[in-house]
Amino acid sequence: MTAPRASIVVPSRGGAGRLPHLFAALRAQTETAWEAIVVIDGDVDGSAQVVAAAGDDLPVRALVLPENRGRSAALNAGFDDARGEVLIRCDDDLRPGPDYVAGHFARHADGNRGVIGLYRNVYPDTAYARAYGRERDERFRADAYATPADARWRYWAGNVSVTRETYDRVGGYDTAFRAYGWEDVDWGYRLHRAGVEIVLAPELETAHHVAATTTEIRVTRAFLAGAARRAFEAKHGAEALGSVGASAGAWGRLVRRTAARYGLGALQRRARTADRVIGRSPRWIAEKHVAWLVESAGLSGTLHPDEVTAHV
Fold it and tell me: Which of 306, 293, 241 is closest to 131 using CA atoms?
C-alpha cells in the first residue's frame, strides 16, 4: 500500500458528537493523499463506531486506548501509528477548510519547520461570548501574529504540523502533562530548543467550535492551565516564559490577592454568579468581571495545583 503524504492525528475523548463535523470537512479536502488516525482516549460514547462509519468513504481509522490516559499519551499513540511524511495534529472540534491538508503540506515543501495554524473560535451567543470571549479571541490572534520568531512556540496547540523527521528528533509529547493544558506548549518549546524554525500560517487559520462557552468553563480551564504552567516552569525553568501573563499595577495586585485567597471551587462559584449577571451589566464592566476571574484562576492554579487531581 502506498504511504499517504500526510497523516492527521486527532486525539479525542467523548467526541462522538464532534467527529462527524470534522469528517465532513475532511471529505472536502483538495489534497487526497492523506490518512487520519482518531485516537480515542477511552471510548465513553461510541466514538469508535462513528469513526468506523466514516471509514466507509474516508481514509480514517480509530486507535482506541482501553482507558483514559490523557492527551499526551493519545497524541503519542497516533503519531507512532502514522505513516505520512507530514504529521498534522488536528483537534476533534476543528472545522478545517478545503485546503487544510494541502496548506500544511505546502508549508513543508522547502524544508523542515514547525507550522502553526491559529484557531478562529466559534461561540454560541452567550453572555460570556459577548462580554469577553469574542473580543479576547481577536486580541489573541493579533498578539500571536505580532510575536517575535523566537517566541512563536508559545502558540503550539491543536492545529500544527511537522515532518516525521522533525517529530522523531524532538520525541513524543510529555505524558507528565496529564490534566488539561500545556502538553502542546511544552512540545513547542522543545521544538524551538531543537533549533527548528516555527512559522504561523495565516492561510491555515481554522474554525474551532470552542468548549469554553461560559465564564465557569473558562475559569476552570484557566485554573488547570495555571497548574500545568507550574509543571512547565518546574521542567524548563521560569525564565523560559519570562514575564508573560503577568499583570502590573492595581489590576495585578487585585489578581494576585484573589488568586492567593481562592482555589478552584471558590472561583467556579463566583464564575457561575458572573454568568448570571454579566448579560445585564454594561459591557466594559462585564468584560472586567470575567477578566478578573479568568486571570485570577490562571494564577490560582499555579498556587494551588493540588486541586487538579479531581480533574485528571
Answer: 293
User: What CA–CA distances, in Å, run from 188 to 117, 259, 260?
Assistant: 13, 28, 30
Helices (H) and strands (E) in the chain, counts: 12, 10
Q: Is residue 242 part of a domain?
A: yes
pLDDT at 178: 85
Give the Cα separation of 145 and 148 in Å (integer): 8
Q: Could you tell me if 237 and 198 lie in one domain?
A: no
Residues 22 and 146 in one domain: yes
d(CA 38, CA 64): 8
d(CA 161, CA 200): 11
Question: In the Cβ-directed half-sphere of 285, how many Cα atoms lie within 13 Å?
Answer: 8
User: Is 80 exceeded by the pLDDT of residue 122?
Assistant: yes
Residue 125 to residues 128, 130, 151, 210, 286, Cα–Cα distance (Å) = 8, 7, 33, 12, 15
Same domain flag for 237 and 255: yes
Question: How confident is the model over 168-212, as pLDDT tens digits?
Answer: 999 999 999 987 889 999 999 999 999 999 999 999 999 999 888
Domain span at residue 68?
Answer: 6-209
With beta carbons less than 8 A apart as the criterion, state whether 49 and 19 touch: no
Q: What is the largest CA-CA distance in the chain?
A: 63
Q: How far apart are CA 6 and CA 24, in angstroms?
A: 18
Give the length of the chain. 312
Specify the number of domains making up the chain.
2
In which band, very low, low, confident or very high, does the pLDDT at 312 lie, cut at 50, 70 and 90? Answer: very low
pTM: 0.94
